[in-house]
From TrEMBL:
Lineage: Bacteria, Bacillati, Actinomycetota, Actinomycetes, Micrococcales
Family in the record: Belongs to the TMEM86 family.
Membrane topology: Multi-pass membrane protein
CC per GO annotation: membrane
Species for this entry: Cellulomonas terrae
Main location class: membrane
Stated name of the protein: Lysoplasmalogenase
Amino acid sequence: MGRSLSMAARVWVAVAVVLVLVHLVAQLVGAEDLARVTQWTLMPAFAAVVVTATRWPRGHVVAWTLVALGFSWLGDLVPSLVGEDAAFLVMVGFFLLAQVAYVVAFAPLVRRSVVHTRPVLLLPYAVVLVVLVALCAPGADALLVPVAVYGGVLVAMAVLATGLGRLATVGGAVFVVSDGLIALEAFVPWWDLAGQGFWVMLTYTVGQGLLAAAVIGRNVAERQAPEPRPVRTYAQRPPIPDNVVALV
């Protein structure tokens, strides 16, 4: 896919990679202000990559992926602009909308996903959902139902992402890990992961990046597919008469 990217797309890929690296380093060294500001720029850079790397007509999957990236950006940005008490709920709300947008994006590919191709693989996704909700339940209290709903939509996104191939399959799974880490920190008292912010953002950016790459790859492959040869008809080229008819 790399050779088929436009120069603008390659520039935006480089910008996105630099922003991700700067942000992750800021997370590691505890530079909170730099981490906050660079986090606001990540999803716009990813969206720019998708826009410049895909070809018109972009279609349903690309359009809804951009919507998902837009809601993800709001989930990164808006919590910093509201009170601390509301920040977590605002973040979860926007990321729930992002996951719904991804579900809408990938739903047309359900017949290519494990839902139809290998239903037995739905079991690990179900186990992850049940375990995550069970761990969060004691600390979630009144938020248990929203947590379960969010977890269900998140896992549905990961399942449907398998319809785009291996990149999206890994991307969806890594995204589940990222949001799972956030849930564990918020609702499980004994959870204490060193470098929590770094691991959340590492899995978040890798997950989003792989999903974007899979969507771009699908778009590029479709737009490069050779056009079918036209079927010749008698109206286009009349049949050659045999010798007997020609003599008559």
